[in-house]
């Protein structure tokens, strides 16, 4: 009984502490900031609406990994948009003599849609320097999974504008040394970082480990592949379920001990990669498109495997892409457990490790963004496919014909206007109503004054019939009520 009392009072104390922290944090201030409807972070109440994950639209292959130094195991793609140029990095393998046969390949594009592999002339492979290789394989095995980041912040040394991490430490003999850091002035000519110490040697890291900068936390972060059952110092690794851990650094030199990410009250799944990056239109929000692996599933027959030329190591398990987010710290949000990127009708994609989303979501048009996915992995037809979404269109608040509404938690609106990213039917609409902290309409900002927003817009300003301005409410706690009928609302922002 005493144990139960102890647990009760402990639970009560923790609850009070969490409540006190929440109260101390106060309402969220929305100032020159965009919020996406990808989680419940801002939502107080939903009435006849739902959060709905969107489906990326396949746009066909943008690259075939068909060079002699690329091949059926080309993958772990990173896409970076920097200096008006789209840059792609990925693994190539000249033969089966790993790890020295692995190398980092490079492609460029002016629009993110049409890609070329430049002949760089840096390294000789297969008797020629006419290739797109930027880093040769070595015993460090850094080309196995090199992940690139463009550090465009003010004050960064020019010779370190591009940064990268690569390497693994997963084999029982520990002959693979760990994660290594690289820097480059142009994204083409790379060298080991001056502090070339191998990092995280007690962790597996046996897939793509992502490097980025977190504007909200003002630090670098590496989201690395780990396993739930592994601990530093274990003689044997790769135990439990594939997952993600995080390490941070203020200076790119000193790094914290990795901490496993949590996923809220959701089932643990094998997440082979993570592709975690700040979203470019709302960098306080991290989006991730992990490669989810179902190791015990099988979709093809042996005859189909043989007919497609699928490598023997790719015949057990199936995979797809999922979507999750983070608002910092060691926690992901998995509001959506369903598939984000399915293998689809192409049976080549039902091998074990196809459908690997690249790290990097980039804008490829005035109203669209693109995600890239490795398809037909482990076959002679391996290629990279581009999929597109509308800007901010990972998910939406969805209302049917009868309509519904969503009410936010208390917020402070610091700006002169609100804009929306929305889509309606011919008879549908979106209206924005402002409520006081207790949920009552604020005079002049009510449903009668709110203008119906009809159509399909990425950035459309909200207005009220009497010309009211948000400036009248600056510093005041309000709730936003979005009223929808046969419509999707993807995001909103508050701006000066």
Descriptive notes:
This protein has 496 residues and is mainly β. Helix content is 6%, strand content 39%. The protein is built from two helices and 33 strands. The chain has helices at residues 2-25, 302-308, and strands spanning 28-30, 33-36, 43-47, 49-53, 57-64, 78-82, 85-93, 102-109, 133-136, 147-150, 162-166, 180-184, 191-192, 210-214, 219-227, 242-249, 259-260, 270-271, 277-279, 282-288, 291-294, 318-321, 324-326, 356-357, 362-363, 368-375, 383-390, 395-399, 404-408, 411-413, 417-436, 456-461, 477-495. Strands 1, 2, 3, 4, 28, 29, 30, 31, 32 and 33 form a ten-stranded mixed β-sheet that branches. Strand 25 and strand 26 (368-375) form a beta hairpin. The termini are far apart. Mean pLDDT is 92; it is low at 1-24.
Short description:
With 496 residues, the chain is mainly beta. It is built from 2 helices and 33 strands. A hairpin with a 6-residue loop joins β12 and β13.
Secondary structure category: mainly beta
Give the % helix.
under 10%
Would you count the extended β strands for me?
33
Shape: globular
Determine the N-to-C terminus distance: 58 Å
Extract low-pLDDT stretches: 1-24
Major β-sheet annotation: 10 strands, mixed
**What is the assembly state of the chains in this entry?**
single chain
Radius of gyration: 24 Å
Q: How many DSSP helices?
A: 2
How confident overall, as mean pLDDT?
A: 92
Beta-strand percent range? 35-45%
């Amino acid at each position: 009984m005493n144990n139960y009392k102890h647990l009760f009072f402990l639970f009560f104390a923790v609850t009070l502490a969490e409540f006190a922290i929440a109260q101390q944090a106060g309402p969220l201030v929305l100032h020159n900031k965009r919020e996406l409807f990808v989680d419940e972070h801002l939502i107080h109440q939903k009435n006849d609406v739902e959060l709905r994950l969107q489906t990326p639209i396949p746009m066909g292959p943008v690259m075939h990994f068909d060079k002699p130094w690329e091949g059926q195991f080309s993958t772990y793609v990173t896409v970076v948009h920097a200096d008006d140029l789209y840059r792609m990095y990925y693994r190539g393998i000249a033969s089966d003599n790993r790890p020295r046969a692995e190398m980092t390949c490079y492609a460029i594009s002016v629009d993110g849609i049409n890609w070329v592999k430049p002949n760089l002339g840096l390294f000789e492979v297969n008797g020629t320097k006419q290739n797109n290789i930027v880093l040769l394989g070595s015993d460090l095995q850094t080309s196995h999974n090199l992940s690139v980041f463009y550090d465009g912040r003010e004050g960064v040394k020019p010779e370190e504008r591009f940064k990268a991490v690569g390497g693994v430490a997963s084999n029982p003999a520990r002959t693979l040394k760990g994660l290594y850091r690289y820097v480059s002035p142009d994204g083409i000519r790379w060298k080991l970082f001056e502090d070339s110490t191998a990092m995280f040697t007690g962790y597996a890291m046996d897939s793509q480990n992502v490097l980025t900068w977190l504007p909200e936390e003002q630090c670098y972060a590496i989201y690395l592949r780990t396993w739930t059952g592994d601990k530093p110092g274990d003689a044997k690794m790769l135990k439990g379920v594939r997952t993600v851990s995080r390490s941070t650094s203020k200076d790119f030199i000193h790094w914290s001990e990795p901490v496993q990410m949590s996923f809220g009250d959701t089932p643990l799944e094998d997440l082979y990669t993570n592709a975690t990056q700040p979203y470019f239109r709302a960098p306080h929000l991290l989006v991730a498109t992990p490669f989810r692996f179902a190791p015990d599933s099988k979709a093809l027959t042996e005859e189909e495997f043989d007919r497609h030329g699928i490598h023997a190591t790719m015949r057990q398990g199936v995979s797809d892409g999922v979507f999750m987010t983070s608002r910092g710290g060691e926690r992901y949000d998995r509001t959506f457990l369903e598939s984000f990127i399915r293998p689809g009708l192409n049976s080549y994609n039902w091998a074990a490790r196809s459908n690997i989303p690249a790290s990097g979501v980039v804008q490829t048009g005035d109203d669209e963004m693109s995600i890239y996915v490795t398809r037909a992995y482990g076959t002679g037809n391996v290629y990279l496919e581009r999929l597109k979404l509308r800007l901010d269109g990972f998910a939406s608040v969805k209302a049917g014909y009868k309509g519904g509404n969503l009410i936010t938690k208390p917020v402070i609106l610091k700006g002169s206007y609100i804009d929306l990213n929305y889509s309606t039917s011919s008879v549908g609409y979106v209206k924005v109503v402002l409520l006081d902290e207790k949920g009552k309409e604020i005079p002049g900002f009510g449903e009668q004054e709110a203008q119906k927003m009809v159509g399909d817009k990425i950035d459309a300003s909200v207005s009220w019939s009497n010309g009211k301005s948000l400036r009248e409410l600056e510093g005041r706690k309000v709730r936003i009520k979005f009223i929808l009928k046969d419509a999707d609302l993807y995001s909103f922002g508050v701006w000066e």
